[in-house]
Write a structure and sequence with these properties.
- The protein is an alpha/beta fold and 233 residues long.
- It folds into two domains: 4-72, lambda repressor-like DNA-binding domains (434 Repressor (Amino-terminal Domain), Orthogonal Bundle); 75-230, 3-Layer(aba) Sandwich (hypothetical protein tt1805), CATH 3.40.1530.
- 43% of the residues lie in helices and 17% in strands.
- It is built from ten helices and eight strands.
- Strands 3-6-5-4-7-8 form a six-stranded mixed beta sheet, with helices on both faces.
- A hairpin with a 4-residue loop joins strand 1 and strand 2.
- Helix 2 packs across helix 3 (29-36).
- The radius of gyration is 20 Å and the shape is elongated.
- The termini are far apart.
- The relative contact order is 0.12.
Length: 233
């Protein structure tokens, strides 16, 4: 079971306030404050929620009668192949409750070495204060209405939460999944990227923004319509 000192250390290593961890864990600030001070007898479910929130931020807690450890995984590469699950993970990582505190979201497209003729995959590198999360093992693409909706929804969230910090690469990359996580992240960082002022600047690299808007923006409830409305021609 996690201890108050581990929780305090976990917060410190990612520079998170009590209020931020409490929000991410879905508990009250008073409850977290008491737990960190060793006051009361918290429920196991409450401690599990705190540990889960820290784990999503890359903080791993271990302990026994002799040793307590708090470890931060500075790089993460979720194996999220299912697009619905992947989009949820991306939205959680960028969202207001995320302890990542993203300061840069980089969109890029990559080829698939095993299927070179298939549409490029759309990927993200989300960088926070303490760590970076690379979403390049996902199957985001523009092959149909549902897939376009997922990509448009993710991009809407990026602009909603981090406008002014959304970037993109202007070339389609080789398959980044064939390299180790650290190498892939360093390569992406070295390439910099241009500030993404309009989604068309990214989509036009490998598809047509105008065609996508014409095909999907008029569909009721389709995120492409919302995205187009936020960025009129």
């Amino acid at each position: 079971m996690i201890t108050p000192s581990q929780i305090r250390s976990g917060r410190a290593i990612i520079n998170a306030k009590q209020s931020e961890l409490a929000r991410a864990a879905g508990i009250s600030l008073a409850t977290l404050n008491n737990i960190e001070r060793g006051v009361g007898d918290p429920r196991t479910s409450t401690l599990d929620a705190i540990e889960y929130a820290l784990a999503r931020a890359g903080v791993e807690l271990h302990g026994d009668d002799a040793v307590e450890t708090v470890t931060l995984h500075r790089l993460a590469r979720p194996s999220a192949y299912d697009t619905f699950f992947a989009s949820q993970r991306v939205l959680e990582t960028m969202g207001s409750k995320s302890l990542l505190k993203a300061h840069r979201v980089l969109f890029f497209a990559r080829r698939n070495r095993r299927e070179p003729d298939v549409r490029p995959r759309i990927c993200l590198l989300i960088e926070g204060e303490a760590r970076a999360v690379l979403f390049d093992q996902v199957d985001f693409n523009l092959s149909g209405g549902a897939r376009v909706a997922e990509v448009a929804g993710v991009m809407l969230a990026a602009f909603a939460f981090h406008r002014g910090a959304v970037y993109h690469l202007s070339d389609v990359l080789d398959d980044t999944t064939m390299t180790e996580t650290g190498e892939a992240v360093e390569r992406l960082r070295s390439m910099g990227g241009a500030l993404l002022k309009h989604p068309r600047d990214f989509f036009n690299i490998f598809d047509s923004w105008d065609d996508l808007v014409a095909a999907y923006a008029a569909r009721a409830g389709h995120p492409m319509g919302d995205l187009a409305a936020h960025f009129p021609a």
